Structure to design on (164 residues):
């Protein structure tokens, strides 16, 4: 007997991902290159009706494939000229608590729980080295579950997402 989508949800209540066909993949590539593309232009480029393109994009959003639409920022030009990856060792089983604290940090851009010599990898973009020092020495090290940090200053970076 076939499982319904509700019965096959994981512990978080999220249904399993639906397979994406070639049209869905084309739509994703288009929207990654230009998130401001109109429904009409998407429909024309993937050779479907506007109603079909609209329904597919809505499904991709509802299914969590598309997490949102936004601008790619040149952090240096936006006044965030210092970027760093910060590795953290944390107390075992404290990931959820630490993640919530890290989400609140000014300049936090990406947070990942990883395996290896450290537990968490955090990408930050801040105005300057003084702001980075404040973030690491005052904010991060004040989190009780953070056992140690190591800061890797970014000298140059390149966004590998499709460019418009």
């Amino acid at each position: 007997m076939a499982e319904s989508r509700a019965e096959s949800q994981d512990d978080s209540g999220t249904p399993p991902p639906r397979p994406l066909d070639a049209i869905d993949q084309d739509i994703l590539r288009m929207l990654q290159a230009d998130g401001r593309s109109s429904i009409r232009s998407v429909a024309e480029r993937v050779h479907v009706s506007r109603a079909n393109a609209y329904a597919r994009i809505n499904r991709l959003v509802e299914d969590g494939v598309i997490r949102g639409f936004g601008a790619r920022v040149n952090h240096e030009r936006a006044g965030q000229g210092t970027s760093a990856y910060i590795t953290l060792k944390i107390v075992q089983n404290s990931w959820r608590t630490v993640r919530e604290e890290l989400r609140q940090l000014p300049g936090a851009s990406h947070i990942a729980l990883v395996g290896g010599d450290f537990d968490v990898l955090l990408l930050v973009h801040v105005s300057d080295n003084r702001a980075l020092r404040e973030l690491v020495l005052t904010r991060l090290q004040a989190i009780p579950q953070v056992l140690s940090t190591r800061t890797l200053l970014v000298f140059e970076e390149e966004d590998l997402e499709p460019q418009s």
